[in-house]
Amino acid sequence: MGRLLAVGKQDIAQVLSLAETIIQAEEGYKALHRGNVDVPAVQHLENPEVEGEFDVKSAFLRAPGPYASVKVATGFFQNHARGLPTSHAVILLLDGATGAPLAIVDGDLITNWRTGAAAAVATKHLSNPTAASVGLIGSGVIAGMALRAICQVRPIRRAWVWAPPVEMREEFARVLTGELGLPVLSVDSPREAVSQADVVVTATPSRAPIVDSTMIRPGTHINAIGADAPGKQELDAALTASAKLVVDRLAQCRSSGELQHALRQGLMEESEVHSEIGAILCGAAPGRTSTSEITIFDATGVAALDIAVTALVYEQARLKGLGTWVEL
C-alpha cells in the first residue's frame, strides 16, 4: 500500500487552533452549498445492549486537493462508568486524484473541535449580536468545546449547565469557569439552564425531549447538537416546528436530526425548513431577521467539515515535519 502519515492529537494541536477550526467549518459549509464537496449518506450502526453506536462519514473535496476522507466515529455512553472515553474516531485521508491513502489522523480532537466550531458558526450568524449568556444541556466534551467556541464569536459573560450526574456537571462548571474566566454555574434542572440564556446548546445522547418551548424566551438561538441519529431527540417537536429552523444538511436532518420528529408528528413540512447553514454563509438565504425570533440550528455533523479540517491538518503537518510515517 505504501507509506501513510500517522497524525496524532499532539501533532494536530501544533497545527490547528479552535479559531482556525471555526474558519474551516465555515469553508466546509460553503463548499457543501456550492457543490465543491460530495457527502454521501451516513452509515449508522448500534449496539443497544451497551448504548453504543458507530457512524461512518465520508466526503470527496474537489479543492483544495482533491481529497477524499472516511471517518469512523463511535459513541459508547456507558463508558464513563468504566473510566473510558465516551467517543473515539479515526479519519483516513486519501488522494482524490489517485485513490492512494495519504494519512491516518486522530479523529477525536478533530471531531470535538469541528463540532464546537459548528455551534460557533451558527451562533455567529443566527444569534443576536448582543448575546452574552449560554445555557448548556450536557456536560461532556462536546458541550465544553461548544462553549469555548461560542466565546470566540460572542461576548459571553455567563453560562449555566445541567446534565446528570451532578458530579460531572459540577466538575464541568469548575473547569470551564477557571479556563474561560466567566461564571459557569451548575444548576438542578434543564429549565434553570436555558430559560435565561441568549444561546442554548444541547449536547446529549437523549432519545426523549429535554427542552420545550415554555423554557425558551423570545430571541434565543439554539444549537441542537445531540440528535445525530435516528431516534435521538433533545427538543420538543413543537419547539422545532415553531422556530426558524436551519439545518446543517437536510438529507441527514430529515432522518437523524431534530427535524425527524417534527416531520413524523406532522407538525411541519420539509418545505418549512428555512435553509441549510451553507446557504446563509454564501448569502443565498437570510439569517436572523428580527431580535425576537427563536432560531434553531439542527446539527447532525457533516463530513464536509471533517474533510476541510483534516486536509488542512495533513498539509500543515507535512509542511512542519510532524506526524509519523508508517508502512502498510
Descriptive account of the structure:
- This protein is α/β, with parallel strands linked by helices.
- It has helices at residues 9-15, 18-34, 107-126, 141-150, 166-180, 190-194, 237-242, 250-256, 259-264, 277-281, 303-320; strands spanning 3-7, 37-38, 43-47, 52-61, 67-76, 87-95, 101-106, 133-137, 158-162, 184-186, 199-202, 207-211, 221-224, 233-235, 244-247, 275-276, 295-298, 324-327.
- The chain has 2 domains: 3-110 and 304-327, 2-Layer Sandwich (ornithine cyclodeaminase, domain 1); 128-301, NAD(P)-binding Rossmann-like Domain (Rossmann fold, 3-Layer(aba) Sandwich), CATH 3.40.50.
- Helix 3 crosses helix 4 (141-150).
- A hairpin with a 5-residue loop joins strand 6 (87-95) and strand 7.
- 35% of the residues lie in helices and 27% in strands.
- The strands form 3 sheets. Strands 1, 2, 3, 4, 5, 6, 7 and 18 form an 8-stranded mixed sheet that branches.
- The model has no long low-confidence stretch (mean pLDDT 96).
- It is built from 11 helices and 18 strands.
List the helices and strands and how they pair.
Layout: E1 3-7, H1 9-15, H2 18-34, E2 37-38, E3 43-47, E4 52-61, E5 67-76, E6 87-95, E7 101-106, H3 107-126, E8 133-137, H4 141-150, E9 158-162, H5 166-180, E10 184-186, H6 190-194, E11 199-202, E12 207-211, E13 221-224, E14 233-235, H7 237-242, E15 244-247, H8 250-256, H9 259-264, E16 275-276, H10 277-281, E17 295-298, H11 303-320, E18 324-327
Parallel strand pairs: 1-7, 8-9, 8-11, 9-10, 11-13, 12-14, 13-17, 15-16, 15-17
Antiparallel strand pairs: 1-18, 2-4, 3-4, 4-5, 5-6, 6-7
